[in-house]
Amino acid sequence: MLFATVSCQGEKLLMLTNQEEQIDRYVKKEFPNNEVLRLEGANRVIITPGIGPKAAAGDSVWFFYEAYIFSGSPAGMFWRDSANVMLGSPYLVEGLNRGIEGMSLGEHSIILFSAKYGFYDQNNGLVPSMSALMYNVLLTGIKKNK
Q1: Which of 5, 108, 128, 141 has its CA 20 to 30 A from that of 87?
Q2: Within 13 A of 126's CA, how many CA atoms are on the CB side?
Q3: pLDDT digits (tens, 9 = 90+) for 44-69
Q4: Which alpha helices (DSSP H) does the chain contain, by range?
Q5: So where are the chain's domains?
Q6: Is it the case that residue 1 has pLDDT exceeding 50?
Q7: Which is nearest to 42 in space by CA: 129, 135, 141?
Q8: Are 34 and 47 contacting, i.e. CB atoms less than 8 angstroms apart?
Q9: Is the pLDDT score of 80 beyond 50?
Q10: What is the pTM of this model?
Q11: If you count DSSP H runs as helices and E runs as strands, how many of each does the chain have, helices first?
Q12: What CATH code would you report for 2-143?
């Protein structure tokens, strides 16, 4: 039983490493001239810079997004919506919180991260467990709460 648990954890770690390598290759290939920020597990590719204040943890943020399962490239949109949430809240997966923090008003970015910063090994509606994710985000509002 212990061997099976260790083996399963090893497979998950290998999968996460592979996802991070796929994200790096994709970003280098598809966005060679864009600014890319590595944000402790999240990668933000700036498509169009914003202006004004930057979003910080505790701020209320408004944004439009498209969410994709990522498997070497966007493998299919699973959600498109707008959101109004407090940055740093549990309503956003960790990778999205990290990716949006520091964005400026009007910024359009692509945020990618491995399953470690998404839903990890839990199935969540349309997202299978251990799925890397990609979000296409347009930040439309920031309210400083501090």
Answers
A1: 128
A2: 11
A3: 999 999 998 999 999 999 999 999 99
A4: 2-30, 94-100
A5: 2-143
A6: no
A7: 135
A8: yes
A9: yes
A10: 0.91
A11: 2, 8
A12: 3.10.50.40
